[in-house]
Amino acid sequence: MATLLRSKLSNVATSVSHKSQAKMSGMFARMGFQAATDEEAVGFAHCDDLDMEHRQGLQMDILKSEGSEEGGEPPLEGDIHYQRDGTGPLPPSGSKEACSELSGQGKPPQPPWEAGWNVTNAIQGMFVLGLPYAILHGGYLGLFLIIFAAVVCCYTGKILIACLYEENEDGEIVRVRDSYVDIANACCAPRFPTLGGRIVNVAQIIELVMTCILYVVVSGNLMYNSFPNLPVSQKSWSIIATAVLLPCAFLKNLKAVSKFSLLCTLAHFVINILVIAYCLSRARDWAWDKVKFYIDVKKFPISIGIIVFSYTSQIFLPSLEGNMQNPKEFHCMMNWTHIAACILKGLFALVAYLTWADETKEVITDNLPSTIRAVVNIFLVAKALLSYPLPFFAAVEVLERSLFQDGNRAFFPNCYGGDGRLKSWGLTLRCALVVFTLLMAIYVPHFALLMGLTGSLTGAGLCFLLPSLFHLKLLWRKLLWHHVFFDVAIFVIGGICSVSGFIHSLEGLIEAFRTNAED
């Protein structure tokens, strides 16, 4: 009897604890401490196969459903596992399917405005600071490309979500896939059932690591131009920034970092407004005659990559759509977010270029007067340093799960011990990744070139090429002729832009690398 009484008291205490955790998770979610998806988080924060621990860090603990237990209580708010049709048993705890479902339901369902805010953060981040430089080499065609990229990325985001669904035996449209990786694997099955997912993961790792490098580059660049009188070179500033970032190697989750996400995003919007306000104050001196219809053939392909990279958000859209209160509102949400992004990016790039014309620099804040440049750049450096852990942590997650924790298919021994602690050599590899981003930033300290290369290689692939190809492969029989035309056109145009931008960016990087090596 005493044992039974203790058991019941323990169950009651556990239930109360779970309710308290659920309420706290819901409170933090409503305050905005969730889905820290600015442009740095795109492609990793919501990736279904990767963000299990990330979501636990954002929302304390992901609660397990107790509804199947005898005498258990129904699932709490924020603890309902994803089931589009509301039927079917939950997969075993700890299985890959369970992780996929939890990654889509680690938090309460989002209203459309909240999902739109996440997409806006992903495509309106600090990398818009490079857009005026794209107008410098593209003129009016660069402005057209900003509009064109918004239209295409909005369309490919929609068709990517369409690939998650299929028609069942009853003629109902149901969600049968959870992530970008699932879509890629479905397209390569049955001959190569995991090839597509590996390609997507490789593209994702490249984009994540390049994003980390860009943060180190922009930190060194901004600090050097903010304090030009100090006897500290841009390389030295990059080393200082990396020393600050080295503790990222010890991260277990992003709980602490994620709390700064909303504040950093709001600060960046304020900085954009300040830059536009300064440009408007000099409207009388705008150089309209400098905006040309011709392009710089050698440098414009790099501008293509810069513009495409600023719109990348496709990798996390499956999780975002799966977590919406009403997924039918996804299309409307994509429309207004990309229209707003197109208008804001176009205006920002145009007014900034009109203000400084041929003197426009790779990072537009470097053109500001010295009186306000230092303050603005320090805020941007703080945002860059606080944003660095997001792509770094996700890149580490991908590498560890694919190379060290993939069961019998892992290439190397598990980097975690039996007690769940990271082994010393695993920690060394994390530190090596931080140092690698530093070395790249030192030898190729060119923000525009790196951004153009990343956009041309992984941005165009994940946003243009793969969605259109997957859409044709999975839904070929159900597509109307104009959808087929759009998909083929996007694939061809995206392929040409990607190859051209990649070649020119790579040539520029090789030349810059040689120059720095000689120095």
Automatic annotation (TrEMBL):
Location relative to the cell: Cytoplasmic vesicle membrane; Presynapse
Protein name: Vesicular inhibitory amino acid transporter
Keywords: Cell projection, Cytoplasmic vesicle, Membrane, Neurotransmitter transport, Synapse, Transmembrane, Transmembrane helix, Transport
Renumbered residue ranges of the record's region Disordered: 1-21, 66-113
Segments of skewed composition (Polar residues): 8-21
Organism lineage: Eukaryota, Metazoa, Chordata, Craniata, Vertebrata
MF-aspect GO terms: gamma-aminobutyric acid:proton antiporter activity; glycine transmembrane transporter activity; L-amino acid transmembrane transporter activity
Domain Amino acid transporter transmembrane span(s) in chain numbering: 113-505
Function statement: Antiporter that exchanges vesicular protons for cytosolic 4-aminobutanoate or to a lesser extend glycine, thus allowing their secretion from nerve terminals. The transport is equally dependent on the chemical and electrical components of the proton gradient. May also transport beta-alanine. Acidification of GABAergic synaptic vesicles is a prerequisite for 4-aminobutanoate uptake.
Catalytic activity: 4-aminobutanoate(out) + n H(+)(in) = 4-aminobutanoate(in) + n H(+)(out); beta-alanine(out) + n H(+)(in) = beta-alanine(in) + n H(+)(out); glycine(out) + n H(+)(in) = glycine(in) + n H(+)(out)
InterPro entries (alphabetical): AA_transpt_TM (IPR013057)
Cellular component terms (Gene Ontology): cytoplasmic vesicle membrane; inhibitory synapse; presynapse; vacuolar membrane
Originating species: Oreocharis arfaki
Sequence intervals crossing the membrane: 141-165, 205-224, 260-280, 300-320, 332-354, 374-399, 427-444, 450-472, 484-503
GO biological process, one term: gamma-aminobutyric acid import
Family affiliation: Belongs to the amino acid/polyamine transporter 2 family.
Membrane topology: Multi-pass membrane protein
